[in-house]
Structure formats: C-alpha cells, structure tokens
Predict the structure.
Amino acid sequence: MRKGRLIVILEVSAIIILGLAAYANSLQGGFVWDDYGLVVQDSYIKSWSNIGKVFTESFGSGGGAVSNFYRPLQALIHMIDYSLFGLNPWGYRLTSITAHILAALAAYWFISILSGSSIIAFIAGLLFLLHPIQTESVCFISGVSDPLSLLFILLSLRFYISNNAKTYFLSPAFFILALLSKENAVMLPLLVLALHYAFSRRMEKKKALPIFFIVSVYILFRVRVSEDFISSVIIQGSTLERIPGFFIATAEYSRLLIFPYGLHLDYGNRLFSFSDPRAISGAVILSALVLIVLLAGKKKPLVSFSLLWFMIMLIPVSNIYPVNESFMMEHWLYAPSLGLFLLFASLLCRPCGRKYTTFSLRVFLALIIAAYIFLTFRQSRYWENQEVLYKRGISYSPDSYILHNQLGLEYFNSGDNEKAEVSFKESIRVNPAASGAYINLANVYRVTGREGEAKLLYAKAARIKALSAGRYYEQAHKYKEEARYAKAVILYKKALLEDPRDIVVYEELGTTYVLMGRSREAIPLFIKALEISPDSGVLHNNLAVAYYYCGLYELAVRHSDIALGSGYEVSPKLLEMLEKYR
C-alpha cells in the first residue's frame, strides 16, 4: 500500500473515531426543545403515505407548526428514523452524529483537493468536527439540517472543482439536495464566485450555469409559489436597527470560536445601539476580515477563500432579514465556522523552516484537539435532558421568558407543580405578554384546586392572544390588499394559531387562497368557519366560489342558494356561471 493512501486511511479513521468518541455520551439523551413539535408530534413522519406532504408543505406542518422553512430532506430523514427507531431518541441522535461526521469527512475531501494538502484538510476537518460550538447542531435532533446542508454543499463544491467531465453532473445534483436540506444552501453560488476569485480559476459555463440556474429556480419557487420562504417571525425594529445585533453576534461568534465557554440556548430577540462597544468590536472584526481578503487577494488563495467562506455563510443568519426570533444562535455558526478552521489550519501548516509542522506545533494542535474533545463531551451532557438544558440557559440568559416557560413545562409534566408555578410566574414577570405562560400557570392553578385564579388567567391569556392575532390580521390584510398573497397567508395562519375560532381570519385566508388559484385549500377553511357560524351568507357564498373553481358545480349551486336564502347578495356573475348547472 502506498504511503499516501495509508495516511488518508489513517486520517479518515481518526475523524470517524474521534467524532464518535466526542459525542458518544449524547446518545443517552432524549428529545429536547423543538424536537417535540418537529419530531415527536409530527404526524407526517409517522407514515410514508405523507411523503407528498413532506415535499409540498413547510417543515413542521405535521406538528401544527407554521414556519418559513422548506426542508423536505430533513423531514425525510426523520421519516426514515421513525421507521427504524420509532420514537426512541437514541436512533435520531445517532443519525445526527453520523451526519456531522460525514460533513467533516466531506470537508476533509474538499479541502485536500482544494489545497493540495491532506494535513491542512485533516486539521481543518478535525477542528470543525470537535469544536464544542457544534454541539447545538449535533445534540439537538431538529438541528440535523445543519450537517445535512453542509455535507451536500461541500460535495457539490468538490465535484465543481473536479477535472473529471463525467462527474460534473454530481455538483448540481448535490446542490439540489443541499437546498432541500436547509435554506442557507442558496449561498453556494457565492462560494463558487469566491473560489474563482481566490484561486484565479476561469469560470466554465458548463459548470457554473447549472448552479446559477438551480438557485434562480429555487428562489423563484420559494417566493412565487411557496409562501414559507417569507419570514414568519414578528419583525422587531427596522433593518437599520437590526444591524448592530449582527455586529454583536459576529463579535460573540469570534469569541466563542476562540474561547468556547458559556455555550447556551436562547440569546434573545433584542435590538442594540451602534454605540454598543460589542457592536463596534463586531464592525471592526468584519472590516478587518474584508481588508485581509483584499490584501491577500489571489496571492494567498486559501486565506482569501476561508475568510470569504466565513462571511458568505454568515449572511443567511445575520438576522438583518429575520428568520428567527433571536439575534444570534450557536448552531448558526455551524457552516460559517468551517472557513475559520480552514484559515487556522492553513496558517498552522505554512512553511516553517524545513518542515511544514514542527514538533511544538504538533503538540500545540494535540492539546487543542484534546481540549475540544473534553469540552464537547461535557457540553453534550447539557443536552441529555430538558431540565438541565433549560437551567443552564437561564443561568446565562435570566431574562429569557421562553426558557423559564419551558422549564416550567418540564416541572409541570413531571408533577412538580410548586416549581412549575415559580417558573411560569418568572416567565410572566420577564414578559407580561407571554400568553402561553399565563395558560400554563392557569393549568397549575386548576390541578391544584384554585379554579377561580385559573379562570382569571385563562381570560387574560385569551385577551393577549386576541391582541396578538389582531396584529397578525392587520398586517396580513395589508399584504392581501397589495396582492402580496404569500406573505398574507403566513400571517393569517399565525393569527389562527393565536385565535383558532376567529371566523373572519378563516374567511380572509380562504379568499386569499382562491385569489392565488388554490381553491382546494380554501374549501376546508370555509367549512371550518361555517362550523362556528353556520348561518353566515358570506361564508356560503365564498364556499360556492371555491367549489365552482374546483369543478364541484353541484355543491357550488347548493351553497350559493343557501347564501341567497340568508339574504346575502350573491354576485350576478356567479349566479350566471352557475345557471347551466342547476
């Protein structure tokens, strides 16, 4: 066996073994955080008959979630896991660990070809694999989209730089899989441009055009056809007001990569000032990175490309365009971090005397790897159960009403009503508009015999939810009037989550679907509203319209007659269209 091949086998084996060792203890953990809504309660993953819904609806729809995420490949992975393991979290966690190791191996493969050095690839791959910042993506079952997406991005780039014409088709194929895993894959065309800039590669149309065509079709599909591309979060502040948060996140991300301590859930959805010292630090860091890229240029391609990778992959999670109700999250650093690990590896392996790596550097690297394994192993333990996870998060973010509420639910479900009451009250103290915490506290009062107090809290929660639904409705109605139907649909759905008996929202959402040419989706909405208000003429009229466009003419005639009988003034045009079906 040739020496080079033996080295590759040893390096690949080391990545696999060390990855399994670092995350072995996480296999003991259960479902946590969003895993319940996105996995445990997702009815779609529990039957292969739902495979069509997985590819046509937003991620999490099977659990009743309304999101702006389209990740059918992640849902498909969960379907496979459910088929193999049922609801045993061990199997899902093994899948996440496997995906993470495969992403590290893909990074090793891509970087070894890009740099021409297996040692640079090995060091970058190991640092990426073992850094404790990755625990949120690996130990959080619902976070498997991070390693999946990066795995396919790297494979797409690997075959993009290939000189073998017979494998060109694999680059766009893996790109499609990346897009179906997570939205951040839309950055791949920019990574391609970064490759050509840093390494002075001439762009070949037969390689580049499929990539740019696919991303164009994908974006067009998400914007024009699939409403889940639109942000579904409550937008806090203007774009300008959210920029300091991105700077602060950049500074904090840099700190976490260098000194990975204080890792925790939920950093909050906050706005910051440009004068905040942390925002200034983040702006300086980003400016410095841009300057280094300009100075390094094409003379030091690995330096330029690694920094461009980091900055490009930060764009989707900058939250300047809000995708989540948080200004930063640790798992958002999963893909960007690879760029800085590549930078570190390339600098560590630069010519030093006669050899690329001296003995002292090897010892230094071994100490870093050992520290990472220890910290990752320890950090993984916090993800074993929800009580430990939430308590740790609260110790770093005591003003997180979400974590207090989640901890209260954990106590309530375990029968510890006293501790649950304390947690729910703290959630309400932090955020007096947290309707869910009022409902949860009312449940505690109810099961402990305090019915009067429970009724008061249920009523208060209902008022808060009605106000929240009203805000969603007003914005949705505005979008509808502007013919921005996809955005309107998202917000109407949000309003229904807050107040599921609001017939006006059902009616507006149904008519929006009719205007979008999706009358079949409007029919159940009108029927649901009629269950609440069976004598509504406008609902019978709108249902008649939806039935007509679906070719169900007999039902259309029946409901138009009911509308007429209720005194509603049915459109003469609709009556004329239905006349021949009477």
